[in-house]
């Protein structure tokens, strides 16, 4: 039996083919660009996602006669708008876009901060979908008038595969239009914001079947295959790493960085610094803190300042990030008195500030590329450490930590996080993250397993464990104290910069 997980990510779409034992047989990723037409804006073309999906599916399905199930995951919060002919109206406004400050203020005034918290478990958030819908309504009224369907990124791919307008509870929660405790659309919020509920897709629990493949643009072995509702990328990553019970947490470093903890009850931070969503296990929740530009910080530096390393990686037939790790290792803890704030796309945890921007603090003529690389890795690690501490403050159990995502493939970065957190950090044998979790959800929806928990116990295998070094933890703590003091000093200056 074969199952496929599809991850509609920010930098590319990945397809993973697994069997009933959890073994990965094939993976394929197709990349695409992100557009930033203005400072703080971020958009993508849904047609790029679909083309990448078709190519990825063709690659993993070659020579396969039968697929038993497909699961979907992807970047959360993106706004896809379709017209009466189901054509895309405008480029998708994606999760890291920060244009919606006025709309957040409008939501707070219209709904009320207390009511937003009690229903959606968060204050008005610039990255969430509701504010993006209001931005189109306020700034592109003709486009809003044409809109007949609103979808999230992975759910656009579902529509292209099945013709169904559907989403799942974990991804729907990130739209800020959902009653998180009752796992359904909130009529009260929708009415207050004057958003017609008929525009929104049907909500399913993550392992439920949401439709069957009808598209003739994908391999024939996929026709009629059930498609699981799936999950947002972090909820799917939790399934892919076995974080499906209390006390378990993970750190993922993709384009963004996340610290995620499973909870049996909906825990809510009254200050809105961390997020509470329904998770991929039916009837359960999770809490998470988000660093907007985690892997993105390193990718930005690679793309703009590491041409030589990229060329050398191609010559050596190795990953350029391996070479960047080796260079960063030559700089000491503290990067020779250089501190990086990873706010390239604003920040969510703990600052909730869309206007924050990245900083190298302490830059001098002595600093080298190695120092800047080390500072980036440390700055992102400190931001994730902020998330860990806030989850604990909210009451979440964080006694068992796993790492995943692209950054989790780096032993150097994983050990750094273990030292910063002062806790053991585990890996899993399969490093495919959200796509692997989506494939596991597909196996449950297809009937191979009764529950998400039983599927995870049967399919997920452990990997390496990183043990914290007490001396290095102490050295990082000194730098972390300086790191924490920088944002309060710069907050008002960010407003002036804007």
TrEMBL record:
Positions of the Carbohydrate kinase FGGY C-terminal domain: 251-446
GO biological process, any: xylulose catabolic process
Catalytic activity reported: D-xylulose + ATP = D-xylulose 5-phosphate + ADP + H(+)
Residue positions binding substrate: 76-77
Gene Ontology molecular-function annotations: ATP binding; D-xylulokinase activity
SUPFAM superfamilies assigned to the protein according to its UniProt record, in alphabetical order: Actin-like ATPase domain
UniProt keyword list: ATP-binding, Carbohydrate metabolism, Kinase, Nucleotide-binding, Transferase, Xylose metabolism
EC number: 2.7.1.17
Catalytic machinery residues: 233 (proton acceptor)
Residues carrying the site annotation Important for activity: 7
Cross-referenced Pfam families: FGGY_C, FGGY_N
Enzyme type, top EC level: transferase
Stretches assigned to the Carbohydrate kinase FGGY N-terminal domain: 2-240
Function per UniProt: Catalyzes the phosphorylation of D-xylulose to D-xylulose 5-phosphate.
UniProt xrefs under HAMAP family: XylB (MF_02220)
Protein name: Xylulose kinase
Originating organism: Congzhengia minquanensis
Gene: xylB
